[in-house]
From TrEMBL:
Keyword Repressor tagged: yes
Protein name listed in UniProt: Large ribosomal subunit protein uL1
GO CC terms: large ribosomal subunit
The species this protein was found in: Desulfobaculum xiamenense
NCBIfam families linked: rplA_bact
Keywords: Repressor, Ribonucleoprotein, Ribosomal protein, RNA-binding, rRNA-binding, Translation regulation, tRNA-binding
Gene coding for it: rplA
Subunit structure: Part of the 50S ribosomal subunit.
Listed GO MF terms: rRNA binding; structural constituent of ribosome; tRNA binding
Its biological purpose: Protein L1 is also a translational repressor protein, it controls the translation of the L11 operon by binding to its mRNA. Binds directly to 23S rRNA. The L1 stalk is quite mobile in the ribosome, and is involved in E site tRNA release.
Domain of life (superkingdom): Bacteria
Entry-linked SUPFAM superfamilies: Ribosomal protein L1
Length: 237
């Protein structure tokens, strides 16, 4: 078992880490357990009742959080012609076609998100093995393969979150910074949950949202009562 410092031990005093809390209290407790000197990120982990090995049970999508993520997002756009000017005007830091592909082949990956126009996907596919494992591969389901590069760039820089359930049926997503406070993190969480619920596969049977855990970068996991989620999404907060 790892040894924790005095600040950590004091932060979790009186908190039952085995209990399941209502959503608002869970967010509040997760923020309370933040002890790092930097502004930690708040993350959520959702255990879904799906079997991702079947394509009709895959849960993947994106959502724009109302309060963003509180971080600068560096965007690379694969496009050509007039689209290059559009992407730059929207705030993309890196724009190009063959030159950008070659740069990445050489090992450069100094960006956070990527967008591509449909006509560029043949070339982007050449670097899929480099982008895919890092979650950087543009995808039509998350709105990052599009002719409307300006909108895609603006949404990503404003805090659009992409998510995908993993092989174990768990979906991880950031919700913002500890400095946001309970209300803003709660708003972002509600927006994310509403989108995840909308994307419930028709092939998924039984309980869809099985468990939820909230945690800051350095903090412990705070369990949320999954059965209470619908109540809070319907205005109970």
């Amino acid at each position: 078992m790892p040894k924790h410092g005095k600040k950590y031990r004091k932060a979790i005093e009186g908190i039952d880490l085995g209990a399941r809390y209502e959503m608002p209290e869970g967010v509040e407790l997760a923020l309370k357990t933040s002890v790092a000197k930097f502004d930690e990120t708040v993350d959520v982990a959702l255990v879904l009742g799906v079997d991702p090995k079947y394509s009709d049970q895959m849960v993947r999508g994106a959502v724009s959080l109302p309060h963003g993520l509180g971080k600068d997002v560096r965007v690379a756009v694969f496009c050509q012609g007039d689209k290059e000017a559009e992407a730059k005007a929207a705030g993309a830091e890196f724009v190009g076609s063959d030159d950008l592909v070659e740069k990445i082949k050489g090992g450069w990956l100094d960006f956070d998100k990527a967008v591509a126009t449909p006509d560029m996907m043949g070339k982007v596919g050449q670097i899929g093995r480099l982008l895919g494992p890092r979650g950087l591969m543009p995808n039509a389901k998350t709105g990052t393969v599009t002719a409307d590069v300006a909108t895609a760039v603006k949404e990503l820089k404003a805090g659009k979150v992409e998510f995908k359930v993993d092989k174990a049926g768990v979906l991880h997503a950031p919700l913002g910074k500890v400095s946001f406070g309970t209300e803003k993190i709660l708003d972002n969480l509600k927006t994310l949950l509403e989108q995840v619920i909308r994307l419930k596969p028709s092939a998924a049977k039984g309980t869809y949202l099985k468990a939820m855990t909230l945690a800051t970068t350095m903090g412990p996991g705070i369990k949320v009562d999954a059965n209470s989620v619908r109540k809070h999404l319907e205005g109970g907060i």
